[in-house]
Amino acid sequence: MKGVKEDSASNEKESVWRAVTKDDVSLTGDRPTGCLHLGHYVGSLRTRLYLQDRCEQWIMVADQQALTDHLGTSQLSDSVIEVVLDYLSVGLDPTKTTIFLQSAVPQIAELSLYYLNLVSVNRLRHNPTVKQEIRQKNWSESIPAGFLTYPVSQAADITAFQSTLVPVGRDQLPMIEQTNEIVEAFQARYGDGLRRVRALIPPHHGRLPGIDGGQKMSKSLGNGIALSEPPDALRSKVMQMYTDPNHIRVDDPGQVEGNVVFTYLDAFASDSEEVKSLKEHYQRGGLGDVTLKKRLVEVLEGFLSPIRDRRAQWDEGHIYDILRQGSKKAREAAQSTLDQVKKSMHMVVL
Ligand code: TRP
Q1: What angle do CA 327, 329, 331 make, to 5 degrees?
Q2: Tens digit of pLDDT for each residue in 76-115?
Q3: CATH number assigned to the domain with residue range 231-311, chosen from the 4 options 3.10.450.50, 2.60.40.10, 2.60.120.10, 1.10.240.10
């Protein structure tokens, strides 16, 4: 899409997005816990845009998964709408990509129930993403069972649609590994019926740091820039961005590495020659942080402004229609997988 660095996109096509074919099926999802941000764009939404013209694609709003660690938040239903608006605003097209709601497809939960027999509690405890989240939440011995088993439910999300591709950020790799283990365990016991999947991870700028220079842009840390960020808030966030703490006077030579402004320019500026010369100037000295940041504001405005415009075109009624239609299609697809799985397990299918 316009405003996104073309050359890095084509590198990615060659190196990691290995031959996506028409036979591929992509599934991914997001927990509705707030607005999606630039990190989601770089880590996954951009890949989904690429995929929607090349293969079958399913995108799920993971409201049941959100309940595994956001119990009883009154914002859940609003967040569902926001996330779908975020999808549409970046250019995901419901006539090409099926967008659906996890809780409206009970077949997925039923599949999870069967998959729970194919994985040990110990294995789940050692899932690196789960482990890290448990540590962050200080749960130690009081881990909710639903949380511990969410990777199993995620395997059901993925396999319900016979997916072959999952476009996600790096932190989701353990989930893909877990899914493939479940697929293999199923195949070993019951024969064919499920397909292995592979993750599609962007190699460059796959992880956008927060404006504070932290490892990752994250909703909970409040260091992100939303896809729906209004112009004033965008400007003030860019002005707060972490640069080089030793670059005090304009004439001082500055560091490009670890400088968040340059990381964002690398990801969003369409003119890589310009970025290169800004880097050289900064390293030499003589380029002030404020001047540099003003340029980034322009670049990000150029990217976010059409996204804001597109967002304004949809109302809540449309969003519900999209989810209703998508979920109906999803139920049919998941039911067919479920019937096949039950047959393979020698159950009586009525
Ligand atoms: N775990 C993902 C997240 O936290 C959301 C998700 C749920 C997902 N089910 C999925 C991602 C299936 C990819 C495939 O954002």
Answers
A1: 65
A2: 999 999 999 999 999 999 999 999 999 999 999 999 999 9
A3: 1.10.240.10
